[in-house]
Amino acid sequence: MTATAATRQTFAGLTHWEIVFWYVLIAVSTGIFAWGVVRLVLRYRRGQISAPPEGLGRRVARAASIVLTHRWIKRRDPVAGIGHALIFYGFLVLFAGTTILAFQDDVAKPLFGFDFWRGSFYLGYSLVLDVFGLALAVGLGVMGVKRLRHPRRLDYGRPDREEDRRLYVVGDWVFLGSLFFLALSGFLLEAFRIAGTNPSFETWSPIGWTVGHAFRRLGMTAQEASSAHYATWWTHGVVALAFVSSIPFTKAVHLLAGPANVAVRDERAGKRLPLLPEDATPEQVGYGRIGDLTWQHLVSLDACTKCGKCHVACPANASGYPLSPRDVILDLRELSAHVGANAVIGERVRPETIWSCTQCMACVEICPVGIEHVPIINQLRRRLVDTGELDTMLQSTLESIYETGNSFGEPKRKRPRWAKELGFEVKDIRKEPAELLWFVGDYASLDARNQRATQALARILAEAGADFGILFDAEKTAGCDVRRAGEEGLWAALAEENVRTISGCEFERIFSSDPHTFHTLRNEYPEHGGDWTVLHHSQLLLELLERGKLVPRRELGYRVTYHDPCTLGRYNGVYEAPRRVLAAIGCELVEMPRNRDNSFCCGAGGGRIWMSELKRDGVKRPSEQRIDEAVELGGLDYFVVCCPKDVTMYEDAIKTSGHQGELELRELSELVLESLDLQVHEPVEASAGGEETE
Amino acid sequence: MSVLVVAEHLQGRVRDVTYELISAAQELGGPVAVAVIGSDPASLDVSREGVDEVVQVRVEQAEFENDVYQAALESLIAERQPDAVLLGFTVNSMGYAAAVTAKLGLGFASDVFALAREGDSVVATRAFHGAKVHAELEFPAGRPVLLLLRPTAWPPAPPGGSPSLSEHSLGPVASRARHLELREAEKGDVDITTAEFLLSIGRGIGEEENIAQFEELAEKLGATLAVSRPIVDAGWVTNARQVGQSGKTVKPKVYLAFGISGAVQHLAGMKTSETIIAVNTDPEAAIFDVAHYGAVADLFDVADELAKLV
Amino acid sequence: MEEALRIRERLGEGEVVAVTVGDEEAEGALRRCLAMGADRAIRVEAEPLDPISTARALAPAIAAESPDLVLTGVQSADSVQGSTGTALAELVGLPRVAVVTRLEWDGSGPATVDRELEGGLVDVVEVDTPALLTIQTGINQPRYANLRAIKQADQQEIAVVAAETSEPAYRVRRMFTPQRGEGAQLLDGGPAQVAERILELVQERLA
Question: B309 and C195 in contact by Cβ < 8 A?
Answer without folding.
Answer: yes
